[in-house]
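Write out this protein's structure.
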Amino acid sequence: MGSLQCHPFPDYMNVSALLTEEQKMICASVRDFVSKDVQGLIREAYQHEQFPMSIVPSLGSLGLLGANLSGYGLPGMDAISYGLVMKELERCDSGLRSFVSVQGSLVMYPIHAFGSEEQKKTYLPALASAEMIGCFGLTESEGGSDPGAMKTRAEKRGKEWVLNGSKMWITNGHLSKIAIVWAKTEEGIRGFIVPTDAKGFKAKKIKGKLSLRASETSELYFDDVKLPENALLPQSQGLKSALSCLTQARYGISWGVLGAAEACFDEAVRFSKERILFGKPLASKQLIQRKLALILSRITQGQLLALRLGQLKNEGKLHFAQVSMAKQNNCELALQAARECRDILGGSGILDEYSSMRHSNNLETVITYEGTNDVHLLIVGEQITGIPAY
């Protein structure tokens, strides 16, 4: 793998010069894996609304699941390396990054941060190797941007917990062996590890999505699901614990969407040079060059923002509102880039042999989940003014 290099373009400000050799190696290795083993599967996966499960063992063997966590045989990758992994995965498809992001940031992280030693030893190695798939249950049909309004409850009855309620928009829900479920208790909101084969647990696949089709999404239902005492994540304390998981996922998204934007940009540049219009390459037209220059400028700004975010995370100085700024900014620029690139492709852009429209459709979901675009602006707005406007 030593001879591989991350594609230097679009890297207009030579951000790659600020990366360590190890970070460049990780980036190149993931790109090589995606190019050889995943890229050819995504088109059909998107068409059929199915995640390509054949690649899951490789995600585990390459150390991409929970890659930024330490101990228990986990890679302990630094924040920038992890961000580069997310970027290379989403360069292929947002559904691929979502799978890895959910497994690592929303399933493994809460166990790592809030679990008992027994839970960590039991679940983290199995989740890292992809022997076990997990999902994260926070959002409810009537909750959305207000997770504190959840109705799912867990009641203590003797030495058991009894879980009732439902969750919505759950990535990998019907593919999972365990679910990290957040529920109201007498002590406030707590997290639980729920086996999906428990009596009373039901997962229903959500069909008919026009976005993120290579990612599988479910509704979860809990009807008197009985759990042992040790199903509780003992260190989970209130909604703050659940939201800290989302901060981890949003960090990865801030990097990931840049991969989608870069893929669209590369495709548009290539197409515009090859497409002959009025006897000249489309790339020779002022309007096209203006569009490409603006797209590249926005991508470059996003790259610099993500890099600084990673530096702060490595230093242990990252604030959740900084992650909100990066998630909002980079999702918006990526979606705008994908739409502009689809426009440059003209009629060809609606064909699935090109990726820009697929990325654009996917990004409509990414700009909405893990906190909507507007909610992240309000998080930053509260930091500016000191006044919450939710």
